[in-house]
Amino acid sequence: MANPKTFELPLSSFVFDGSHPSMFRDRQGKFEDRAPNYDDRYDFHTFVYDCFYRDDINEVWILCPRLLNFIGLVRDMVFCVDGTEHGRVKIENLSRCSLIRLKGVKSIPQIVRFEHEKVSGDLPVGDTRLDLFAGKNAVFSINKDNRLEWIQDWLRFYVRVHGLNAMALVDNGSTTYSVDDLRAAIDEVEGIERACVISAPLPFGPNAEGQANTSSLYLQRSTAEIIRRRLFKNCRAVLNVDIDELIFSWSGQSIFDATAQSDIGYVRANAEWIYVDEDTAARVKKPLRHVHHTNLSVPRKPGAKRQPKANRKWCVDPNGKYGEHQWLMHFLENQKDPIDLDFLMLHCRQISTSWKYERGGLDGIALEPFPELEVLMKKTFPEYL
User: Fold this and answer.
1) What is the pLDDT of residues 185-233, one digit of tens each?
2) Beta-carbon neighbour count of residue 183 at 10 Å?
3) How far apart are CA 384 and CA 161, in angstroms?
4) Pick from 13, 163, 263, 268: most CB atoms within 10 A?
5) How far apart are CA 300 and CA 86, in angstroms?
6) Do the domain assignments include residue 212?
7) Residue 351 and residue 145: Cα distance in Å, rounded?
8) What is the CATH number of the domain that holds 328?
9) Segments forming the whole domain that contains residue 365
10) Using one digit for the tens of pLDDT, what is the confidence trace for 63-85?
11) 240 and 325 share one domain
């Protein structure tokens, strides 16, 4: 088949209909640690996110949210590959997701069928597209209803500043535009040589400011695993940042180059929130954009060093020392992973749909200019001058 610049990767998902109590996933964590919206946003019924064949190890991978109490169902299931019962089944738990591995599948299958007295279904088996992204500098993220111009500005920043040339974006059920609209917007960005959109209109999970229980957020970490295994395994370097996050380098170095040249193939950046000052917000035509974010918050105590106030992010060589670590959101090994002081991840406060909490105003936050960033923004986005 022809390979367009931006293509959609279909997932092979399966959602239980809840017709039996065993088809409701158990909740996680203590009741007092759950956000008020926990039950409204929790994924009680998704059984499978995706099913695909890994020809490098001759296995079919069925990637699921954490199986929890569903593991009993799985152990009693019969799995058939293209009509033939398959007995070599292994269940493996990762962080916030689970794998059902059908081992020793020596040719590319079409359908995996699972059968149980309470439920059965067919899973079309997807393929990998590793060749399309081999050697690329790639970024991945998850999206829901972010403005298309924000997505384009985000990509242009990384193309122009860091040499980005590939990306994958999981669309979590946007309602303000279609997947085709999203693909068309990405196609307009010069410098992106290959891009993939994955439509995943499934529960993101319960999330609210200050909630203590984050173990129930399955989708983001699971789709990162899909991207790693189906798309990005042979990339030169892979950056994990959201659409409101920009990587600043004091030396002007590309984070992809720094990662590829690193002895461990892994760079982790410190993080700060950045803001649009009130005068700029009043002057510019809405919506506010990345280019308008050129201010830091003032340290709370006079003379105190500025401390990171945002979660750190990372870039990795998928075939380097850390290549087999699961792609977590803020680190690969643990929270004490070292940081590279040349890089600073800048979290744009007013690039947000406020889906988690209100981020439109300053709420009394005192600001100070970040002159080096202002210079970079003007150089990167001359069309705004």
Assistant:
1) 999 999 999 999 999 999 999 876 656 677 899 999 999 999 999 999 9
2) 19
3) 16
4) 268
5) 61
6) no
7) 12
8) 3.90.550
9) 137-192+236-384
10) 999 999 999 999 999 999 999 99
11) yes
Based on the structure, what is the number of domains in the chain?
Answer: 2
In a domain, 225, yes or no: no
Write a three-state SS string for the chain: CCCCCEEECCCCCEECCCCCHHHCCCCCCCHHHCCCCHHHHCCCCEEECEEEEECCCCEEEEEEECCHHHHHHHHCCEEEECCEEECCEEEEEECCEEEEEEECCCCCCCEEEEECCCCEEEEECECCCHHHHCCCEEEEEEECCCCHHHHHHHHHHHHHHHCCCEEEEEECCCCCCCHHHHHHHHHCCCCCCEEEEEECCCCCCCCCCCCCCCCCCCHHHHHHHHHHHHHHCCCCEEEECCCCEEEEECCCCCHHHHHHHCCCCEEEEEEEEEECCHHHHHHCCCCCCHHHCCEEECCCCCCCCCCCCCCCEEEECCCCCCCCCCCCCCCCCCCCCCCCCCEEEEEECCCCCCCCCCCCCCCCCCEEECHHHHHHHHHHCHHHC
How far is 382 from 282, CA to CA, in rounded Å? 21
The Cα angle at residue 28 between residues 27 and 34, in degrees rounded to 5: 95
pLDDT band at residue 308 under the 50/70/90 scheme: very low
Cβ atoms of residues 127 and 91 within 8 Å: no
Last residue of a domain, one of 124, 152, 167: 124
Gyration radius from the chain CA atoms: 22
Between helix 148-162 and helix 371-380 the angle, nearest 10°, is 100
Q: How far apart are CA 35 and CA 20, in angstroms?
A: 26
Longest dimension (CA), the chain: 71
Based on the fold, state whether residues 149 and 29 are members of the same structural domain: no
pTM, full prediction: 0.93
CA atoms of 285 and 364, how far apart (whole Å): 22
